[in-house]
Write a structure and sequence with these properties.
mainly alpha, single chain, 104 residues, 4 helices
């Protein structure tokens, strides 16, 4: 169950990162509330996962999902570069997260 909470925390983190861009563009209270919900959910699920998982492992995987997911969202929805080198390093971050799960 802790791993599911950690994955949800990562997805809420990705949502929160996307909402930063929305707040920057729209500057309205609805966008701000979505930002708060995204990061609030992220911290809530991360705290739940850390009841069972080691702090270092949980934090590393959470940041990996958020960073990689944010970069992928930028490529898919905001026209950011899809250069092969960028994709390679995103894959490396995700591989490291999977590796931490395997050894934990």
């Amino acid at each position: 169950m802790a791993w599911i909470s950690l994955m949800l925390a990562g997805f809420f983190e990705m949502f929160g990162v996307a909402m930063i861009n929305k707040v920057h563009r729209d500057r309205n209270w609805q966008s701000f509330m979505l930002l708060v919900i995204g990061f609030g959910g992220s911290f809530l699920f991360l705290a739940n996962a850390m009841k069972t998982l080691p702090m270092g492992t949980a934090y590393a995987i959470w940041t990996g999902i958020g960073a990689s997911g944010g970069a992928l969202l930028g490529m898919l929805f905001y026209g950011e570069s899809r250069e092969w080198k960028r994709l390679l390093f995103i894959a490396m971050v995700l591989s490291a997260a999977v590796g931490l799960k395997v050894v934990s």
